[in-house]
Amino acid sequence: MTATKRAQMMAETRAKLIRAARLAFAAKGYAAAPMDELTAEAGLTRGALYHNFGDKRGLLQAVVNAIDGEMAERARAIGAGAGGGWNGLLAEGVAYIEMALEPEVQRIVLLDGPAVLGDPSRWPTQNACLRETMRTVETLMAEEVLRPVDVEAAARLLNGAALNAALWVAASEDPSATFPKAVDAFRLLASGLLAASGDRRVSRKPSID
What we know:
76% of the residues lie in helices and 0% in strands. By secondary structure, it is an all-alpha fold. The chain starts with a helix and ends in an 8-residue tail after the last helix.
């Protein structure tokens, strides 16, 4: 078997396990999803899971990375649709919070993920989002839309506010009722970064659709 064929088969095996795990973790939760049932659903064995992900926790990490990466892409698309710039940045944050209403995101990424994998702000996908936000913040400061402040600090606080708002929505007894409260507070906190001139040039409430 060639190295290319071997790599292709490994990628297909990983993809099967991730798909099966997404379904199982979303339906039953991480703790209640048996590994034998999960691997059987994918047409594979426990050995394949151990070989590709080390253990069940490693599989959860891969599933969370996949979903969180998709969330970031969706949020960026919504930000671009809002016109980019400040309105786009704010729309991205609101979109990320709104995704906490989706059952798969809620259970896997925002409830089981932190419980099993630890602080979400240290996940690789969150670090990638931070770099994107830093670039946007730096541009907005150069355009005098935002007040002069440390770029990394502003980006970390913006991303952290959106992430913690999403965690709050997901963990609340009534996520639908909590969501608008979280969004209102996020918008108000974020707007504190606006320069007086920037405040006049941008919309304060981009659509969350």
